Amino acid sequence: RDPEQTTMTNQDALNAAVAAMTGSQSLYDVTIICTTDDHQAEYWMKRLSEGLCKSSDDAALHFPMVLAVSEDWGAGGAGNGLGTLYAFQKATKLAKEKYNVDLAHLLAQGEISAALYHTAGKGTRMAPLPASENNNKPGVKLPVCHNVNGTYQPITVLEAVVKQTGVYAASRKGRLSVYWGDQIFVPSASYDMEPTHHIDIMCTLLGDTAPTAQEWEAQGLEKYGVIAVLKGDERNAAQVEKVSHATAVEMLQSLGEIAQVGPSLGSFSVSAAMLQALSEEFAKELAEKTEKLDTDPHFWMPLTLSAKDYAALMKQKGIDEDVSLAHHARITAMKDKFDFGDLGLFGAVNVGSDACWWDYGQLKLYSKNNINLLEAGQDADLLRKFFAIDDKKQNSVLDGVTVDDTSCVFASKIQGGTITESALAVVTSPHVEADGAIIVNCTAKKIVAGKGSILYNLIDTSDEGIVAAPGEVIVAVNDESGDSMLLKSHMDIDGGKAWKIKLDMNEMSFEDVRNKNMDANITVIEAKRNEAFEKAASSF
Q: What is the mean pLDDT of the segment spanning 174-188?
């Protein structure tokens, strides 16, 4: 194929996907958010229902519906396998109580589509940003605004993910789709497809043929969970995890010949029938709430690999062979009595090797992908289209301030200063000096932000204002009383490695702040922060 034609085709596919995400209300009929606690669940029910998932059809009775539930599980969590089943179970109960809607029945009848977003987790690599949202990691704001109930507010990471993944909703009636809440992507492969398997996994299939041993090594596939699509019209697939090319071929030879492979993205969808079968099989674990099971090692691999190969892989994880063989036998018994109908067991959904990705799960990536808003090129153009940025100074009053052509300044009121190569959202100040900085939801008499710095949720009424050195990260952490403390870091600091360490610049470690934030009423805190923001901003 002509390389120029290939590029055009991929570009057209990417543009079509973004248009589908932004052109109309592309949403699942039911959006389920799995949170850390009940306060977060309450927050997301309200925010999404009044904003991104607000019905555009006055005649629609209940849909789109938002159901947010907490994972009240034993120590260590449920894992994403049991966690998915439990969140759906809780959402089904909530839908019945709140709307008198039988979610499981409507899904089984193919009348609705449903998506579940896992948002729990400490967010250590994003520190200190999640601390400023009182552990509400998916509530971390981006320097881009959208309309929420009549006001322009920074879009959160989760809202961006819900907006992006909705492109798959139309083709997934009768299925539960499961996503993780810290990255968005634009597929270069088709997003509108008829499901062919009871379980399908999103992945990036590499090339049109199976890789050689040299290609497997060059692409680093031994480091990932890999989806292997087998030859044949059914395009059945299997999952292997962190194995060499030779091991993969040996394990899969009993299933068939490999046609294509690619790293798994983790996100998946299951039919209503498979969801019910898994929920029934693990009913005891769901009732006791102590076991931890993940999808890849405990569901997909025993479903698609032989007992011998599954036990060998799990042995690498330190799991005793007898335990693995017993679990495989249990999953096989469930599979043997399952009615497959017209669908296969396990398949792949290819997002395309030219898909565009924006990950916000690490502080460095948060910085990189937000600064990407300012840059030139196909990737940045797509990002701006996704966020519907047709004016880099949307809803802002910028009289007297010098702003260069690349900077983005949204929903802000700034009277003087100079802004270059920076991304700002909801900033009110008489004077801002920003160079290569990200400033979100801040107000002060004066703001000075050096290159690579991040200022977040800051309210300052001092004459000195806010000053951030190059690479410095400063956030505010509020509590329910309205009190606030500063928490700092630097772009060179890995929050995961420094999680338990009290940095010299702070009064507490990131872990201590998280523990202090546990079960914080984020709805109350956000209301008080907004009130304090308005009071300070109006005084300048």
A: 93
Look at residue 214 and give its three-state secondary structure. helix
Rg of the chain over Cα atoms, rounded to whole angstroms, equals: 24
Residue 59 has pLDDT above 70, yes or no: no
Residue closest to 261 by CA, chosen among 233, 315, 221: 221
Return the closest-CA partner of residue 290 out of 301, 302, 282: 282
Give, to the nearest 10 degrees, the angle between helix 245-252 and helix 307-316.
150
Euclidean distance between CA atoms 148 and 92, whole angstroms: 26
Q: For the segment 311-340, what is each residue's pLDDT rounded down to a tens digit?
A: 998 998 899 999 999 999 999 999 999 999
Q: What are the φ and ψ backbone dihedral angles of 95, each rounded to 5 degrees?
A: -65, -40
Question: E strands of 340-483, at which residues?
Answer: 344-350, 356-359, 401-403, 408-410, 413-414, 417-420, 423-429, 432-435, 438-443, 447-449, 454-456, 466-468, 472-478
- Output helix, strand, coil percentages for the chain, rounded to the nearest 5: 35, 25, 35
Contact between 144 and 425 under an 8 Å Cβ cutoff? The reply is yes
Contact 183, 386 (CB under 8 A): no
H helices, E strands: number in the chain: 18, 25
For residues 304-317, average pLDDT = 91
Burial (Cβ within 10 Å: 0-12, 13-18, ≥19) of residue 377: exposed
Each residue of 472-496: pLDDT tens digit?
999 999 999 999 999 999 999 999 9
For 264-328, the DSSP string reads EEEEEEEEHHHHHHHHHHTHHHHHH------HIIIIIHHHHS-HHHHHHHHHHTT--HHHHHHHH
Alpha-carbon gap, residue 368 to 358, rounded angstroms? 9
Nearest C-alpha neighbor of 396 from the set 409, 407, 406 = 409
